[in-house]
Amino acid sequence: MNDLDPAASLRMIRESQEQARTGTEPDVRLLYLVWGIAWAVGYTVLWTSARGAGGAPSGPGFAVFFALLGVATAITIVHTVRRSAGTRGPSTRAGAMYGWSWMLGFLAYPFIISGVARAGASDEVIGLIANALACVIVGLMYLAGGALFCDSGVFVLGLWILLVGGVATVAGIPGSYLLLATAGGGGFLVMAVLAHVVQRRRRAALGEGGTADD
Amino acid sequence: MTELDAVIHAPARLRVVSTLATLPHDDEIAFPKLQKLLDMTAGNLSTHLRKLEEAGYVRVAKTFAGRRPVTYLALTTSGRRAFEDYTAALTDLLKGARA
């Protein structure tokens, strides 16, 4: 097998590189899917619960919501850490700092919400700020991610989530929850589908060399 | 006829170099991770890495993670250039074959 012809060599290069990327970069389809489900189901639960109670969602509603977010966070961390393990250097460091930025943003989040509540905000105001602030953090993080990884899809998602946050706040309670569930969660799910299509196309282009190794 | 770089033009080493070339500039990959990506035995991979290191294409950094020694690998500038020249030569050959 020492006599590699040029076509076989090029194919081998493409296959090794595709395999290397799969093994070192997170699968964004999985992450979009997980967060799409968490938002779509979680905010639908809050919306149903808020409508039933005629104001703020119930305790059990929030329990389901936070459980979903917790699972999505855990999957995201385990998956990205596993994929990036075993590499080091400037881009690995940049990726780690980006990951920590998410954490830090959402570390400040509960303090802001509870501070607003303690200052006497009504349930409606608290709900609106909680939803809007989540969208602002997520939206800005995706804008930053788009810039960092030079990925315009991620950038557009950031733009979309910011837009959803703005419109949801104007819509008021409980409509805000419904918008985050449909337009917000839906945004993630659309991205999951788009990422899947892009990957299928890339794999298909790889296969043009002639192997059916995929 | 274009001469192909004999150091790279062997299946195992071609896969090693192609994989290392996907790393962003200045990033390095740990030996076990590279081994997993390539699905090669440690001995086999070491042999090929040594040849690439001798050619000046791969840079080897040995450090410690706690007490465990870890070897990090990356393409050198000339390794990256050699890989680019190699793929360019392949493309030329293919064009020549089709013309």
Q: What are the salient characteristics of this protein?
A:
heterodimer, A: 214 residues, mainly alpha, 7 helices, 84% helix, disordered C terminus, B: 99 residues, alpha+beta, Arc Repressor Mutant, subunit A, three-stranded antiparallel sheet, 4 helices, 3 strands, 55% helix, 19% strand
How would you describe the overall organization of this protein?
The complex is a heterodimer of chains A (about 210) and B (about 100). Chain A is built from seven helices and one strand. By secondary structure, chain A is mostly helical. Chain A has one domain. The longest helix of chain A has about 35 residues, at about 175-205. The radius of gyration of chain A is 21 Å and the shape is elongated. With about 100 residues, chain B is an alpha+beta fold. Classes of the chains: A mainly alpha (about 210), B alpha+beta (about 100). Strand 1 (about 85-90) of chain A pairs antiparallel with strand 1 of chain B.
Q: What count of domains describes the coordinates of chain B? A: 1
Number of strands of chain A: 1
How many structural domains of chain A? 1
Shape descriptor of chain A: elongated
Helix-and-strand structural type of chain B: alpha+beta
Mean pLDDT of chain A: 92
Number of helical runs of chain A? 7
The coarse silhouette of chain B is: elongated
Could you write a compact summary of the structure shown?
The complex is a heterodimer of chains A (214) and B (99). Chain A has 214 residues and is mostly helical.
Give the SSE layout:
The complex is a heterodimer of chains A (214) and B (99).
Chain A: H1 6-24, H2 28-53, H3 59-84, E1 87-88, H4 90-118, H5 123-149, H6 152-171, H7 175-207
Helix pairs in contact in A: 2-3, 2-7, 4-5, 5-6, 6-7
Chain B: H1 11-21, E1 28-30, H2 31-38, H3 42-54, E2 58-65, E3 68-75, H4 77-98
Antiparallel strand pairs in B: 1-3, 2-3
